[in-house]
Specification:
two-stranded antiparallel ribbon, 6-stranded antiparallel beta sheet, alpha+beta, single chain
């Protein structure tokens, strides 16, 4: 949860905490859960939830009387994404990357210690890899995540490694900092990252960083596909296309390197 400030409106902060609970919940949320999470009484939790219902941010199930996120969250999220310069600039290139490679393409940013997908273009192939906008990807074992953190400063990488657990997703996942640090160095040198079935079994991905003015990494763009189609022999070809696409987007965003 973001740090508090001296100017925080407590009731608004609580309402936003409830909104986040609804958005992140896999199912529905009850009054008791909200009350316990926020350390408030049930009457306060009930009022918070029903205020969100009245504004369209939550919906109450008639049978269970529990709550879930409302469509207004999606509508506002879409508007924010549509107005984001990065997404607007990258969209045509994301489509072209998908058409050129035949694989699913995706765009992600680093937010609150996670790689978050902000746009995608699914492959038309019968067997493909789909990602969800808003879904996080592991930084230490996804190509898009590694591309985002590879050029952080040594201090930032050290802070990440001390803060985040390197969970194992597949037998190929790197879970030790002593493996990841030199791996990130090689990514910096070659200009792209590869996920060789490290995040999902049977899936390979290639990603490259997108830079803004001053060379700071703003996002990453990549392609993903089943390993039977994205073979190791095909990685150099895909990497060249992804790196070129990332460079073109970077130029449009003001990077002159």
């Amino acid at each position: 949860m973001p740090g508090k400030t001296n100017y925080e409106v407590r009731s608004l902060a609580r309402g936003l905490d409830v909104l986040a609970m609804l958005a992140e919940a896999e199912g529905t949320v009850g009054v008791t859960e909200v009350a316990e999470s926020l350390s408030v009484d049930k009457s306060t939790a009930f009022r918070l939830l029903n205020t969100l219902v009245g504004q369209g941010f939550a919906v109450q199930d008639e049978d269970s009387r529990r709550y879930r996120a409302g469509l207004r969250i999606v509508q506002l999220s879409r508007r924010v994404l549509d107005r984001t310069e990065l997404r607007a600039v990258a969209r045509p290139w994301l489509k072209q990357l998908q058409r050129t490679t035949g694989e699913s393409s995706h765009l992600a940013v680093l937010a609150q210690g996670q790689a978050i997908y902000v746009d995608k273009e699914d492959s038309d192939a019968g067997l493909n890899v789909n990602t969800e906008i808003g879904r996080p990807a592991a930084l230490h074992c996804s190509a898009i995540g590694k591309a985002l953190i590879a050029e952080l400063s040594p201090e930032e990488i050290e802070a990440f490694l001390s803060r985040e657990a390197m969970a194992r997703y597949t037998p190929r996942t790197m879970t030790a900092p002593r493996e990841l640090v030199p791996h990130l160095e090689s990514i910096r040198e070659q200009g792209y990252a590869v996920d060789d079935e490290e995040f999902e079994p049977g899936v390979r991905c290639v990603a490259a960083p997108i830079r803004g003015p001053g060379g700071r990494v703003k996002a990453a763009i990549g392609v993903s596909g089943p390993s039977v189609r994205v073979t190791l022999e095909r990685i150099p070809e895909l990497a060249a296309t992804v790196v070129d696409t990332a460079a073109r987007i970077s130029q449009l965003l003001g990077y002159s390197g």
